[in-house]
Amino acid sequence: MKWRLQEGRGEAVYQIGVEDNGLLVGLAEEEMRASLKTLHRMAEKVGADITVLREREVDYDSDMPRKITEVLVRKVPDNQQFLDLRVAVLGNVDSGKSTLLGVLTQGELDNGRGRARLNLFRHLHEIQSGRTSSISFEILGFNSKGEVVNYSDSRTAEEICESSSKMITFIDLAGHHKYLHTTIFGLTSYCPDCALLLVSANTGIAGTTREHLGLALALKVPFFVVVSKVDLCAKTTVERTVRQLERVLKQPGCHKVPMLVISEDDAVTAAQQFAQSPNVTPIFTLSSVSGESLDLLKVFLNILPPLTNSKEQEELMQQLTEFQVDEIYTVPEVGTVVGGTLSSGICREGDQLVVGPTDDGCFLELRVCSIQRNRSACRVLRAGQAATLALGDFDRALLRKGMVMVSPEMNPTICSVFEAEIVLLFHATTFRRGFQVTVHVGNVRQTAVVEKIHAKDKLRTGEKAVVRFRFLKHPEYLKVGAKLLFREGVTKGIGHVTDVQAIAAGEAQANVGF
């Protein structure tokens, strides 16, 4: 059990009444009770709790009724190592993204006029227009027994973290086309484990829904679909929206297997299938006003296992420290604070790191004063975890989004010119040398000019090529193999970095631009 909990990063699902070869034999009631008691004693020994997920009767050659039971074993977290899943929330404007997150994290249903979303907004204009324009984070916890832990009992974020053994961090993204660059930045930079695509039952697949779906597919982010506002429409309208979704998900470009979730049993199966196969796409139909089927989504999120295994995380932790800077704040009495994700290594309080590249391609020394993860203090940060780091009196003007903080031993390489193998998803005419696009690579977002298209003069929609780009403003830290996404108006393309032309810090200023 200890090994299985370690493999599942703190949780494991046991099936009682199933033989090693997968045969469903089931157990009689007395035997099942004894087995559960044994499992409970084992769990207590390793400091875990057990929750019965579902029971089912099986037909086996016996007069006695026999059952199989699925049990979730979850370890009570020690040394702040709660299981953390990041879920990006996508969908068209006015589909109810912020409202759904408000209902899940505050524990109160919406009044139909946007009350639930008010706590999520960060700016006055968002409250006035009801539209998200920035990226906000919300947390939902589950304790070791599988019960929801949120702000409902006047808890603070610290209390939610303390009483949860599993945390879901929702990344609330913008739905309006005007803020598409913010949504792309949220998907590329914050490395979500999966995405939640919200579709309004009364409007169906409209506006930016297809675009957001395309972004999730291009960046290979597994996603599930939630059809909201079912209280506003007739049953036939909801069914029509679900049929439309199924048709789109089965198209050649998507190759997904839609799975409509209508019972708790379906939610358990969907969570297990979703983790095993990225092609399975669960579809939930719910309402944030009436609360209909909201529990099924909570069951799904509670059981959803981590989509990366512990072995991958161990390998990343062996590497040198690399932290992506996504947000920069100034906090009174604390100083400069940066938010982002640790992509490799381990970061501790007091570590000496270097941050860059600056406009002239240099890396500056700094010290990590303190770390906060999910709004509560944390001493050690491990690869794959998101956090905010306090840098003391380090000058905020020297920092920008897209920088990296790395271990001084890494000797990081920077570049102004890089090559990428791309696929042009859409362009109105022909894509040729001299064209300017906004390039997104991880947390890097900058305008670049096309310097050369290898073996071709021009590209049309759907064509592949290796293209050389040059950043216009300042050099960036890029890695070979990183996923790349570029856009300009309706022009869109995806690909990956194949080569970077490393430059020394002194040469950086001369190499950027023309």
Explained architecture:
The chain is an alpha+beta fold and 514 residues long. It folds into 4 domains: 1-75; 83-307, Rossmann fold (3-Layer(aba) Sandwich), CATH 3.40.50; 312-406, Translation factors (Elongation Factor Tu (Ef-tu), domain 3, Beta Barrel), CATH 2.40.30.10; 414-501, Translation factors (Elongation Factor Tu (Ef-tu), domain 3, Beta Barrel). It contains 12 helices and 29 strands. Helix 9 runs parallel beside helix 10 (294-303). The radius of gyration is 24 Å and the shape is globular. The model has no long low-confidence stretch (mean pLDDT 87).
Feature tags:
single chain; alpha+beta; Rossmann fold; Elongation Factor Tu (Ef-tu), domain 3; 4 domains; 12 helices; GTP binding; translation elongation factor activity; GTPase activity
Structure, briefly:
GO terms for molecular function: GTP binding; GTPase activity; translation elongation factor activity. With 514 residues, the chain is α+β, with helices and mostly antiparallel strands. 23% of the residues lie in helices and 36% in strands.
Topology:
Blueprint lengths: L1 H6 L3 E6 L12 H17 L2 E11 L7 E10 L7 E9 L5 H10 L17 H6 L6 E7 L5 E2 L7 H7 L2 E7 L7 H10 L4 E7 L8 H10 L4 E6 L6 H15 L7 E5 L2 H13 L3 E6 L8 H10 L6 H9 L3 E10 L3 E10 L1 E3 L3 E5 L7 E4 L2 E4 L2 E3 L1 E3 L3 E5 L13 E3 L7 E13 L4 E2 L3 E6 L2 E10 L4 E2 L4 E8 L11 E6 L2 E13 L4 H4 L3
Helix pairs in contact: 9-10
